[in-house]
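Sanity check record (used in CI):
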Amino acid sequence: MSYNSNPLPPGQGAPPSGYQIGVGAPANQQYLQQQHTPQEASASYAPPPAPGYTQEASDIPPQTQQQYPPPPAQAAQQYPPPPAQHAPENVGLTSQDQQCYPPPPAQQPQDAPLAGHDHHQYDPTPRNTMMTTASGTYPVPAERHSANFGDDDPANPIHYTRDPHKLVAYLVPFPKPSIRGVDSSSIPDRFLIYTPPPPPLSAPKEGEKEDKLHKVQRKWQEEVRAARTSDAKVTSWKGVKSRATKGISYVMSKTTTSNLDFVNRIPGAKADPDKHADDGVAEGDTTKKTVGLEEMVLVYPSSYTASPDQVKAEFINTMMRTKSKAQRDSVIATGLLPVSGAIDLLATVVWPFGGLLEIDGVWAYSSIRGAKTARSVTKRLASSSYSGNIEDQTEEQELAGDQLRLSFTQSPRLEILQRYLVTKCREYDHKHFPSTEVALSEGEVLAAIGWSPSQTGNAQKNWEDEQWETEEVKADLRSTLGKAAKEWDKWCNALAKNPEKALKK
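Expected output for Secreted protein:
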């Protein structure tokens, strides 16, 4: 096929035999191509101006300006004048036409606030925002307002108390896990037993003799507090020591279980120290023991429908399981004491802070004391005698002990603590515990059980001590319930693998 290299425009000569412009195109494009060929388009435009040419005004063709008629005049809108305002006249008006208003009520004096209601009124007296103590000047903390729980009676057993003869413990049922191949109804009910830790130990008054164990524990608490509140640089000696102390304290808290923590917080019979040992006046030939715990109040949620007998049976089983594990751990920890002491001695050149011997010693002491306390509690629950005096008892008689009164009560406030445990279980294993509970703060949980910082009446106690005690209890709540969630998930996995063996643990 051949193409014509020099086609002629239409109408000039014979039509080309090759490709034709406009063939097959729409009608409107064919019309435009026929009317405006390249030759005609080039002839209709003037050539470009020469370089250096300046356009004159005469060269510009005049443009006709389109004339528009002026807009029609708009007639001004007329408004009627406003009516004249005249003073109201009562002439000629009847009593029905006149609108009467009652006089404003006289301002009555404000009544006194009702009893039991909080009325916060503005006090124009400026509040002192700084306080000066022996250690320096500090800002005054904000006023604390206790949580309002309605018509709750302060004598309600749910409120935490620091009575040495009465212990309030909280039984929190563990949530049922969702494990493939295991029916939730076949998993037995078990509890977390929790009670807040005792307040920090204080130094004895002048003239009083301090027990050696009490002094060691108090010094360690002061050292931990100084380490956690220290702002020294990490590279400094003080900073490294603070990090070592915090690490040792953390590992110590992991050597015990959640149930062993509760057992070690049960107060026991204490020996009365000889307060006049220094002045040469002896009080007696032998040291006498005072009565320890007499009553234990177990509080559990209102949603739990088990009978008190079932709750008591599960509580005793928990004590027995705790005693068995504590006895086994005490043997292991006691056997590791020489090894940990030798390692600390050899590592003194590299690591002068030690740590292994302290951790192993705390593990051994907690296990031995926990096993003894759990055995004493279970024997006292089964005992039928009650005398209130344990002065002349042997160790076996003391372990058998007097009868321990055990009472049970339900409270809707424990629902908050149960929700907090559910969130801890979900944080550890969200597959086994798929819950949609909103995470609660430790402050809400402590307010629900009625806990507040201890008031010892010491003149040196200030808001810093209260703040430290509050933070310690919050940290203990997180740690204890976190360990409980881990232990419960581990036991549920063992139940799925071997139910008979898991039920014995």
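The mean pLDDT is 75. If this sentence no longer matches the regenerated tokens, the check is flagged for review.
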